[in-house]
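step=encode ok
step=design start
structure_in=
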């Protein structure tokens, strides 16, 4: 097993790690899950889960002995909820005393058979795990019916926005950030912690932080590490103070979406519109003082002037469209916003 740190975005503190399976081929090279999972049958997946869980619990115990009290997340195929052997293994690890139950997080991946719309057996097993004190995580929040229905039906405490969604910021930054913001709002409104996967650049960290995610993981923090390398990484790791203003065009775009969200939520009163139009905003802070963005700063100013007439005013909507188009173009030209194609 390898382990990827999970970080609290508000201050950079490490809050847990996710255990990720690795296999070695005949030449000794490590294989990522995408290279071997498609070849595994159901019984193979169950064996992998049980073996990985045992290794992850041992690793977590060693980290705790070294002074690192962190949560340990283990991926669990949803079909394992219907397997007595897998559920017995979870109970055995919880009752072993090697970790507090709340420090074990099971990330549910995929959907159990017959789960559309509801699988009573899997749901009952999830309730049993929650009663043991194990934290359940929706590991593939993507906005589809299946994952959204499970949020309502199952005792989850955390949801993860999949890296496949985050990665689209490299080709559709505006649409991706809008979608991510709505997923974060859904998670927060339902009382869940929200973690974003696939944060491969500082710009993605900044944008998801501004949009309200609680935590994140990805190559911008650390690649999946062996247990030995993880201990070294944790020993050298330092938290940070969050930046007061965006430092990337993608962060500025996230800030603009929040400004617009607040604008649309105002009462239909010109006094509120004028006040919001004159308020400082994240994109304005980012653009100010940088000669490279002189044209964007002018477009930003024009949008704010037009905003005094309200969010439905045609002049405002035209100015807003022009500014967003320019900001999106800046994001697409920013190397820091690009997401490399890598395997977890």
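sequence_out=
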């Amino acid at each position: 097993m390898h382990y990827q740190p999970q970080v609290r975005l508000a201050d950079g503190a490490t809050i847990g790690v996710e255990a990720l399976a690795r296999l070695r081929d005949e030449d000794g090279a490590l294989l990522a899950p995408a290279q071997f999972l498609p070849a595994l049958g159901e019984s193979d997946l169950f064996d992998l889960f049980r073996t990985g869980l045992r290794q992850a619990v041992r690793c977590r115990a060693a980290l705790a002995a070294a002074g690192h009290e962190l949560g340990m997340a283990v991926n669990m195929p949803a079909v394992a909820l219907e397997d007595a052997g897998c559920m017995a293994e979870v109970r055995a690890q919880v009752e072993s005393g090697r970790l507090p139950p709340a420090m074990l997080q099971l990330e549910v991946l995929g959907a159990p058979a017959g789960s559309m719309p509801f699988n009573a057996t899997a749901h009952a097993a999830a309730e049993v795990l929650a009663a043991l004190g194990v934290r359940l995580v929706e590991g593939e929040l993507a906005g589809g019916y299946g994952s959204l229905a499970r949020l309502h039906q199952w005792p989850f405490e955390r949801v993860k926005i999949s890296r496949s969604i985050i990665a689209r910021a490299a080709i559709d930054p505006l649409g991706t950030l809008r979608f991510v913001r709505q997923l974060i709002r859904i998670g927060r409104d339902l009382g869940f912690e929200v973690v974003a996967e696939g944060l491969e650049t500082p710009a993605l960290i900044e944008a998801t932080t501004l949009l309200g995610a609680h935590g994140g993981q990805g190559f911008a923090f650390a690649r999946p590490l062996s247990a030995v390398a993880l201990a070294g990484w944790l020993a050298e790791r330092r938290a940070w103070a969050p930046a007061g203003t965006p430092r990337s065009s993608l962060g500025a775009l996230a800030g603009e979406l929040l400004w617009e969200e607040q604008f649309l939520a105002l009462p239909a009163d010109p006094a509120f519109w004028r006040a919001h139009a004159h308020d400082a905003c994240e994109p304005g802070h980012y653009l100010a003082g940088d000669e490279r963005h002189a044209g964007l700063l002018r477009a930003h100013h024009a949008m704010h002037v037009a905003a005094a007439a309200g969010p439905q005013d045609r002049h405002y909507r035209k100015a807003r469209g022009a500014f967003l188009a320019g900001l999106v173009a800046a994001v697409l030209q920013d190397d820091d916003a690009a997401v490399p194609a890598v395997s977890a």
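step=design ok
step=annotate ok -> The chain has two domains: 2-236, 249-333.
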